[in-house]
Amino acid sequence: MNAKETISFIINPNSGLGRHRVVERMVEKYLNKTIYQARIYYISKDMSIAQTARLSVADGAKIVVAVGGDGSVNGVVAGIEGTQTKLGIIPVGSGNGLANFLKIPLQIRGAIEVLNRHQSMLIDTLEVQGKTVVSIAGVGYDALVAEKMKKAKVRGIPAYMHFMVREYFWYSPKHYTLQINGETIKTQALFIAFANSNQFGYKRPIIPTAKIDDGLMDICVVQKPPMYLISWVGFSLFFHLVQIHTKYIQTYRTSSIQVQQRKSRIMNIDGEAVKMPRKFEIKVNPKSVEVLIP
What we know:
The chain is α+β, with helices and mostly antiparallel strands.
Protein backbone atom coordinates (compact mmCIF):
# COMPACT_ATOMS: atom_id res chain seq x y z
CA MET A 1 0.00 0.00 0.00
CA ASN A 2 1.56 3.27 -1.11
CA ALA A 3 -1.08 5.74 0.04
CA LYS A 4 -2.68 5.69 3.45
CA GLU A 5 -6.02 3.93 3.63
CA THR A 6 -8.90 5.52 5.45
CA ILE A 7 -10.04 3.25 8.26
CA SER A 8 -13.21 4.09 10.16
CA PHE A 9 -14.02 2.87 13.66
CA ILE A 10 -17.72 2.69 14.46
CA ILE A 11 -18.16 2.58 18.19
CA ASN A 12 -21.37 1.43 19.80
CA PRO A 13 -21.37 2.95 23.32
CA ASN A 14 -24.24 0.67 24.32
CA SER A 15 -22.47 -2.56 23.38
CA GLY A 16 -21.14 -5.13 25.77
CA LEU A 17 -19.35 -4.41 29.00
CA GLY A 18 -18.14 -0.82 28.61
CA ARG A 19 -14.68 -1.53 27.15
CA HIS A 20 -15.44 0.78 24.21
CA ARG A 21 -14.46 3.69 26.44
CA VAL A 22 -10.75 2.99 26.01
CA VAL A 23 -10.83 2.07 22.32
CA GLU A 24 -10.23 5.57 20.96
CA ARG A 25 -7.15 6.00 23.14
CA MET A 26 -5.83 2.56 22.16
CA VAL A 27 -6.38 3.24 18.46
CA GLU A 28 -4.42 6.47 18.76
CA LYS A 29 -1.59 4.65 20.51
CA TYR A 30 -1.31 1.37 18.59
CA LEU A 31 -2.78 1.78 15.08
CA ASN A 32 -0.10 1.89 12.36
CA LYS A 33 -0.30 5.50 11.16
CA THR A 34 2.07 4.83 8.26
CA ILE A 35 -0.62 2.81 6.47
CA TYR A 36 -3.85 4.14 7.98
CA GLN A 37 -5.69 7.39 8.40
CA ALA A 38 -8.20 6.83 11.18
CA ARG A 39 -11.69 8.24 11.68
CA ILE A 40 -13.84 7.61 14.73
CA TYR A 41 -17.63 7.48 14.63
CA TYR A 42 -19.96 7.06 17.61
CA ILE A 43 -23.42 5.84 16.76
CA SER A 44 -26.40 7.70 18.17
CA LYS A 45 -30.16 7.24 18.44
CA ASP A 46 -30.52 9.25 15.23
CA MET A 47 -28.33 7.00 13.07
CA SER A 48 -28.03 3.21 13.14
CA ILE A 49 -24.76 1.29 12.84
CA ALA A 50 -25.60 0.32 9.26
CA GLN A 51 -26.35 3.94 8.32
CA THR A 52 -23.13 5.08 9.98
CA ALA A 53 -21.19 2.42 8.06
CA ARG A 54 -22.75 3.53 4.77
CA LEU A 55 -21.83 7.14 5.57
CA SER A 56 -18.30 6.05 6.34
CA VAL A 57 -18.03 4.23 2.99
CA ALA A 58 -19.34 7.32 1.20
CA ASP A 59 -16.63 9.32 2.98
CA GLY A 60 -13.96 7.07 1.46
CA ALA A 61 -13.36 4.41 4.10
CA LYS A 62 -11.57 1.34 2.74
CA ILE A 63 -11.99 -0.50 6.05
CA VAL A 64 -14.84 -0.09 8.53
CA VAL A 65 -14.21 -1.50 11.99
CA ALA A 66 -17.09 -2.68 14.18
CA VAL A 67 -16.25 -1.81 17.78
CA GLY A 68 -18.72 -3.86 19.80
CA GLY A 69 -20.25 -7.31 19.76
CA ASP A 70 -21.98 -9.46 17.16
CA GLY A 71 -24.83 -6.98 16.81
CA SER A 72 -22.34 -4.23 15.95
CA VAL A 73 -20.58 -6.49 13.45
CA ASN A 74 -23.95 -7.27 11.87
CA GLY A 75 -24.75 -3.57 11.53
CA VAL A 76 -21.43 -2.74 9.91
CA VAL A 77 -21.71 -5.64 7.47
CA ALA A 78 -25.23 -4.55 6.54
CA GLY A 79 -23.76 -1.14 5.71
CA ILE A 80 -20.75 -2.29 3.67
CA GLU A 81 -22.03 -5.45 1.97
CA GLY A 82 -21.91 -5.08 -1.79
CA THR A 83 -19.04 -2.57 -1.67
CA GLN A 84 -15.25 -3.01 -1.87
CA THR A 85 -14.88 -1.85 1.74
CA LYS A 86 -13.45 -4.40 4.18
CA LEU A 87 -14.66 -5.31 7.66
CA GLY A 88 -12.52 -5.02 10.77
CA ILE A 89 -13.51 -6.13 14.27
CA ILE A 90 -12.55 -4.92 17.72
CA PRO A 91 -14.60 -7.31 19.88
CA VAL A 92 -15.68 -5.42 22.98
CA GLY A 93 -19.21 -6.84 23.13
CA SER A 94 -20.51 -9.39 25.56
CA GLY A 95 -20.74 -12.40 23.21
CA ASN A 96 -18.22 -11.81 20.37
CA GLY A 97 -19.13 -15.01 18.52
CA LEU A 98 -17.67 -14.09 15.12
CA ALA A 99 -14.46 -12.72 16.61
CA ASN A 100 -13.96 -15.96 18.55
CA PHE A 101 -14.64 -17.99 15.41
CA LEU A 102 -12.10 -15.96 13.39
CA LYS A 103 -9.60 -16.07 16.31
CA ILE A 104 -9.49 -12.28 16.58
CA PRO A 105 -8.06 -11.40 20.02
CA LEU A 106 -10.51 -10.12 22.60
CA GLN A 107 -7.84 -7.77 23.91
CA ILE A 108 -8.14 -4.35 22.25
CA ARG A 109 -4.44 -4.02 21.47
CA GLY A 110 -4.34 -7.50 19.92
CA ALA A 111 -7.37 -6.72 17.74
CA ILE A 112 -5.69 -3.51 16.55
CA GLU A 113 -2.57 -5.50 15.65
CA VAL A 114 -4.79 -7.68 13.43
CA LEU A 115 -5.80 -4.49 11.58
CA ASN A 116 -2.15 -3.48 11.25
CA ARG A 117 -1.23 -6.82 9.62
CA HIS A 118 -3.89 -6.17 6.95
CA GLN A 119 -4.54 -9.86 6.15
CA SER A 120 -8.04 -10.66 4.95
CA MET A 121 -10.41 -13.35 3.73
CA LEU A 122 -13.75 -13.39 1.95
CA ILE A 123 -16.62 -14.77 4.02
CA ASP A 124 -20.22 -15.73 3.32
CA THR A 125 -23.23 -14.04 4.84
CA LEU A 126 -26.81 -15.23 5.18
CA GLU A 127 -29.91 -13.28 4.20
CA VAL A 128 -33.38 -13.57 5.74
CA GLN A 129 -36.28 -11.23 4.98
CA GLY A 130 -33.84 -8.63 3.64
CA LYS A 131 -31.72 -8.78 6.82
CA THR A 132 -28.08 -9.81 6.94
CA VAL A 133 -26.83 -12.62 9.16
CA VAL A 134 -23.07 -12.73 9.67
CA SER A 135 -22.68 -15.47 12.25
CA ILE A 136 -25.82 -17.22 13.61
CA ALA A 137 -29.58 -16.96 13.34
CA GLY A 138 -31.97 -19.04 15.37
CA VAL A 139 -35.63 -19.60 16.18
CA GLY A 140 -37.24 -21.03 19.30
CA TYR A 141 -35.69 -21.12 22.74
CA ASP A 142 -32.49 -19.49 21.46
CA ALA A 143 -34.42 -16.48 20.16
CA LEU A 144 -36.30 -16.16 23.45
CA VAL A 145 -33.01 -15.97 25.36
CA ALA A 146 -31.75 -13.33 22.90
CA GLU A 147 -34.89 -11.28 23.51
CA LYS A 148 -34.44 -11.51 27.28
CA MET A 149 -30.79 -10.46 26.95
CA LYS A 150 -31.73 -7.48 24.81
CA LYS A 151 -33.99 -6.19 27.61
CA ALA A 152 -31.58 -7.02 30.43
CA LYS A 153 -29.86 -4.24 32.34
CA VAL A 154 -26.79 -6.42 32.94
CA ARG A 155 -24.97 -8.24 30.12
CA GLY A 156 -22.26 -10.90 30.04
CA ILE A 157 -22.00 -14.65 30.68
CA PRO A 158 -23.69 -14.70 34.12
CA ALA A 159 -26.78 -12.93 32.75
CA TYR A 160 -26.81 -15.18 29.69
CA MET A 161 -26.61 -18.36 31.77
CA HIS A 162 -29.31 -17.04 34.09
CA PHE A 163 -31.77 -16.65 31.23
CA MET A 164 -30.78 -19.95 29.63
CA VAL A 165 -31.52 -21.89 32.79
CA ARG A 166 -34.58 -19.91 33.85
CA GLU A 167 -36.37 -20.09 30.49
CA TYR A 168 -35.50 -23.70 29.64
CA PHE A 169 -37.77 -25.53 32.05
CA TRP A 170 -41.05 -23.91 31.07
CA TYR A 171 -40.33 -23.43 27.34
CA SER A 172 -42.58 -25.53 25.07
CA PRO A 173 -41.05 -26.76 21.79
CA LYS A 174 -42.60 -25.23 18.67
CA HIS A 175 -43.71 -26.83 15.39
CA TYR A 176 -41.73 -26.09 12.22
CA THR A 177 -41.86 -27.25 8.61
CA LEU A 178 -38.51 -27.06 6.83
CA GLN A 179 -37.78 -27.30 3.12
CA ILE A 180 -34.14 -28.37 2.76
CA ASN A 181 -32.56 -29.60 -0.48
CA GLY A 182 -35.94 -30.63 -1.87
CA GLU A 183 -36.92 -32.51 1.30
CA THR A 184 -39.80 -31.56 3.60
CA ILE A 185 -39.05 -31.99 7.29
CA LYS A 186 -41.70 -31.54 9.98
CA THR A 187 -40.31 -31.16 13.47
CA GLN A 188 -41.16 -30.01 16.97
CA ALA A 189 -37.98 -28.32 18.13
CA LEU A 190 -36.58 -26.64 21.20
CA PHE A 191 -34.66 -24.44 18.79
CA ILE A 192 -33.23 -24.39 15.28
CA ALA A 193 -29.90 -22.69 14.54
CA PHE A 194 -28.89 -21.49 11.08
CA ALA A 195 -25.12 -21.25 11.24
CA ASN A 196 -22.71 -19.32 9.07
CA SER A 197 -19.99 -19.59 11.73
CA ASN A 198 -19.85 -22.25 14.42
CA GLN A 199 -20.93 -20.49 17.60
CA PHE A 200 -23.53 -18.28 19.24
CA GLY A 201 -21.06 -16.24 21.27
CA TYR A 202 -19.63 -16.51 24.79
CA LYS A 203 -17.43 -19.23 23.24
CA ARG A 204 -20.54 -21.41 23.05
CA PRO A 205 -20.22 -23.66 19.96
CA ILE A 206 -23.17 -24.98 18.02
CA ILE A 207 -21.90 -26.78 14.90
CA PRO A 208 -18.12 -27.32 15.05
CA THR A 209 -17.87 -28.29 11.36
CA ALA A 210 -19.43 -25.04 10.09
CA LYS A 211 -17.26 -23.07 7.65
CA ILE A 212 -17.76 -19.42 6.90
CA ASP A 213 -16.56 -19.47 3.30
CA ASP A 214 -17.99 -22.68 1.81
CA GLY A 215 -21.18 -21.26 0.29
CA LEU A 216 -23.33 -23.32 2.68
CA MET A 217 -25.09 -22.82 5.99
CA ASP A 218 -25.19 -25.51 8.66
CA ILE A 219 -28.54 -26.13 10.33
CA CYS A 220 -28.92 -27.66 13.77
CA VAL A 221 -32.36 -28.84 14.89
CA VAL A 222 -32.55 -29.59 18.60
CA GLN A 223 -35.46 -31.36 20.26
CA LYS A 224 -36.13 -30.91 23.97
CA PRO A 225 -34.82 -34.02 25.76
CA PRO A 226 -36.35 -35.57 28.86
CA MET A 227 -34.98 -34.31 32.17
CA TYR A 228 -32.63 -37.25 32.71
CA LEU A 229 -30.88 -36.58 29.36
CA ILE A 230 -30.50 -32.82 29.61
CA SER A 231 -26.88 -33.03 30.78
CA TRP A 232 -25.87 -35.43 27.97
CA VAL A 233 -27.55 -33.50 25.17
CA GLY A 234 -26.22 -30.21 26.54
CA PHE A 235 -22.72 -31.71 26.70
CA SER A 236 -23.02 -32.98 23.11
CA LEU A 237 -24.35 -29.66 21.86
CA PHE A 238 -22.09 -27.20 23.59
CA PHE A 239 -18.79 -29.10 23.70
CA HIS A 240 -18.18 -29.74 20.01
CA LEU A 241 -19.86 -33.16 19.93
CA VAL A 242 -22.83 -32.37 17.68
CA GLN A 243 -21.47 -34.89 15.22
CA ILE A 244 -22.53 -37.62 17.66
CA HIS A 245 -26.08 -37.02 16.36
CA THR A 246 -28.15 -38.09 19.32
CA LYS A 247 -31.77 -38.52 18.32
CA TYR A 248 -32.41 -35.10 19.85
CA ILE A 249 -29.94 -33.31 17.55
CA GLN A 250 -30.08 -33.33 13.72
CA THR A 251 -27.82 -31.34 11.42
CA TYR A 252 -28.13 -30.41 7.76
CA ARG A 253 -26.13 -28.41 5.24
CA THR A 254 -27.65 -26.33 2.43
CA SER A 255 -27.41 -23.06 0.50
CA SER A 256 -31.04 -22.13 1.22
CA ILE A 257 -33.92 -23.17 3.44
CA GLN A 258 -37.61 -22.31 3.69
CA VAL A 259 -39.10 -22.27 7.17
CA GLN A 260 -42.76 -22.29 8.16
CA GLN A 261 -43.98 -21.64 11.71
CA ARG A 262 -47.51 -21.82 13.06
CA LYS A 263 -47.42 -18.10 13.78
CA SER A 264 -45.12 -15.10 13.54
CA ARG A 265 -42.31 -15.30 16.12
CA ILE A 266 -38.98 -13.72 16.94
CA MET A 267 -35.65 -14.82 15.51
CA ASN A 268 -32.20 -14.39 17.00
CA ILE A 269 -30.05 -12.64 14.37
CA ASP A 270 -26.47 -12.27 15.58
CA GLY A 271 -27.69 -11.79 19.13
CA GLU A 272 -30.55 -9.41 18.30
CA ALA A 273 -34.22 -10.43 18.59
CA VAL A 274 -36.11 -9.70 15.33
CA LYS A 275 -39.75 -10.48 14.53
CA MET A 276 -40.19 -12.92 11.63
CA PRO A 277 -43.32 -13.82 9.62
CA ARG A 278 -44.85 -17.30 9.63
CA LYS A 279 -42.98 -18.21 6.44
CA PHE A 280 -39.50 -17.07 5.52
CA GLU A 281 -36.46 -18.13 3.53
CA ILE A 282 -32.80 -18.02 4.47
CA LYS A 283 -30.14 -18.14 1.76
CA VAL A 284 -26.37 -17.89 1.55
CA ASN A 285 -24.64 -14.97 -0.13
CA PRO A 286 -21.26 -16.58 -0.94
CA LYS A 287 -18.07 -14.63 -0.15
CA SER A 288 -19.93 -11.34 0.05
CA VAL A 289 -17.75 -9.58 2.65
CA GLU A 290 -13.99 -9.27 3.09
CA VAL A 291 -12.83 -9.28 6.72
CA LEU A 292 -9.44 -8.65 8.31
CA ILE A 293 -8.15 -11.71 10.19
CA PRO A 294 -5.03 -12.73 12.19
